[in-house]
Amino acid sequence: MPELRQNPFTKQWVIIATERAKRPHELARKLEESKPLPSYVETCPFCPGNERLTPPESMQMMRDGKWQVRVVPNRFSALSRDGELTRKVEGLKVVVNGVGHHEVIVETPDHSKTTALLSESEVELVLETYKQLYINITKDTRVEHVTIFKNHGLAAGTSLEHPHSQLIATPIIPPAIRNRMEEALRFYDVQGQCIFCKVLSDELAEQVRLIHETEHFVSFIPFAALTPFSMWIFPRRHMAAFPETKPEELRDLARMLRTILAKLYYGLGNPDFNYIVRTAPCEGRYLRYYHWYLTIVPRLTRMAGFELGSGMYINPTIPEANAEFLRGIAIPADSTPR
Amino acid sequence: MPELRQNPFTKQWVIIATERAKRPHELARKLEESKPLPSYVETCPFCPGNERLTPPESMQMMRDGKWQVRVVPNRFSALSRDGELTRKVEGLKVVVNGVGHHEVIVETPDHSKTTALLSESEVELVLETYKQLYINITKDTRVEHVTIFKNHGLAAGTSLEHPHSQLIATPIIPPAIRNRMEEALRFYDVQGQCIFCKVLSDELAEQVRLIHETEHFVSFIPFAALTPFSMWIFPRRHMAAFPETKPEELRDLARMLRTILAKLYYGLGNPDFNYIVRTAPCEGRYLRYYHWYLTIVPRLTRMAGFELGSGMYINPTIPEANAEFLRGIAIPADSTPR
């Protein structure tokens, strides 16, 4: 019998479609089939030596006299850095001037790598860059919220191969964050507790959906995972905002993120995926009821008319079975680029 | 300067990204490049003569002694027709038994057709089938809401070529409907008016986003279109629920739907698309504040990490320019399958 499960943070429903359930390995592609990338591509705007192909950098993290992580404004920026924050309301038409920031984080000079194949210290440097960039950009008082995300592969919305992630700073609070805050506050009003802390402690007690634990972070498949293998990484310590993460926690997060992405890489054959840092609005750094976390969404299925129409999802896999599968995926000691 | 525009029904924001704006024809593919389909495919479960490949039909609409529209339960049903409606709440884990209906509407015996290439009376018969099926299925008191939708093409989530649409009847009210009802009620509370009727009359007055008008329906591009060329078809008469549509209105809707889809077909070169009938919950047939409408979403761009993370969208086209483009697309008098 299929089950409808509800995401407690958003009240979204997912149909766990047992009648069409696929076993985890059925969603994997063969790693050998994904063709190895070259370390350098002459026309790639993110490869070293081609820096002239991007706008001047906003930030650089250096190593041995060369850049290791490089931040540049998006050439096709969705928002404009210049201009005043204005709002125009004409009846039901509401328009806010599109001011904000849209930056690209080039994660490594090496075109051929992917996060799963970077070293822990390289991933750590990427996360440090996120934090530093967040802090720099939120000095701009027009910014209400910052979304940090990564698109890996065509199905995840990018045709650029060179490992990169993005940051978009918006002059409004996005609905996906507002929605979570409203539900979390409702829970806090009654229970006097952070709903995210509660889910984390429930998952740690129940264990069946856990993937991996580190000193400061826990990763698991949500009970109501909307899509196959979508995963959450939660900080154990209550923190509303990503930039509150301490240096030793960032280092630990690098270890966690790399491990989880390597499990995906080796377990499902380098699938396309997105990840997103879901952090509180700029003004909500110390909220007691909101808790930042990282969502990873492998793009193994497609949104069709039902999802677009209902806001519900059909997940043709079993979250508990997927978690068990990922727990069992070992990462080769010599995890280097192919 | 980019603009952030807000959908008044959902409070979703879209960035109209003028800096990367594409002109309408840049999103078109060449119609000549989409390969013509055969009228009959031996292995297609929806072609006449292959009826044994589907479960027994739930409904048939006959013409000249043969079926013209055929409804069958989905072989890989997301929900189960049998079983009791039960709910299990364990802390923050909420589970509803997956009971409901998942039906496939085969729109024509001809494998090679698409809605744009059917005759008006053929489209009318499909819409009549939707209505009759809705009425039949909602006799099941476990059903709270019915989503009727179509997936056309791979990017829209289907690999089945034979023209078909689907109906999923759920034992809960989907969040996308609940969300619209809440916002609409909030508006009604203050203004004493249906927010959908208000948007319709504003669009008729402003004209710039209109695509096509018929006696009973109006189609336009939303002011805050989340994706390029997403379109709405609104009934002029206030009706909360699709099955309230009268026979002469259905006939008129067939004319409208076929016209709009033909404009897409000829204007953008047979793009993949979804459409969805957004109707009130079963118990809300006569709501004064909700208004059913049809949404068409061509799948010309992809959801990436920003959309998944923020619930916001980036639309790299201008709604007003797209509406003008579609108004100018003429439909060949002899619109027959290629």
Name a few traits of the molecule:
homodimer; 338 residues; alpha+beta; HIT family, subunit A; ten-stranded antiparallel beta sheet; three-stranded mixed beta sheet; 6 helices; 15 strands; 25% helix; 23% strand
Give the class of chain A from helix and strand content and strand pairing: alpha+beta
Proportion of residues in β-strands of chain A: 15-25%
**What is the CATH H-level superfamily of chain A?**
HIT-like
Largest sheet properties of chain A:
10 strands, antiparallel
Q: How many domain modules of chain A? A: 1
Describe this structure in words.
Two copies of one chain form a homodimer. The first copy, chain A, is an alpha+beta fold and 338 residues long. Chain A has a single domain (3-76, 107-327), classed as HIT-like (HIT family, subunit A, 2-Layer Sandwich). Chain A has helices at residues 120-137, 175-191, 195-206, 247-268, 305-310, 319-327; strands at residues 3-6, 13-16, 59-63, 66-73, 87-90, 93-97, 101-106, 145-152, 164-170, 210-213, 217-220, 231-235, 273-278, 293-298, 313-315. A ten-stranded antiparallel β-sheet of chain A has the order 3-4-7-9-8-13-14-12-11-10, with helices on both faces. Chain A has a three-stranded mixed β-sheet with strand order 1-2-15. The radius of gyration of chain A is 20 Å and the shape is globular. Chain A starts with a strand and ends in an 11-residue tail after the last helix. In chain A, 51% of the residues are buried. At the A-B interface, β1, β2, β6, β8 and β9 of A face β1, β2, β6, β8 and β9 of B.
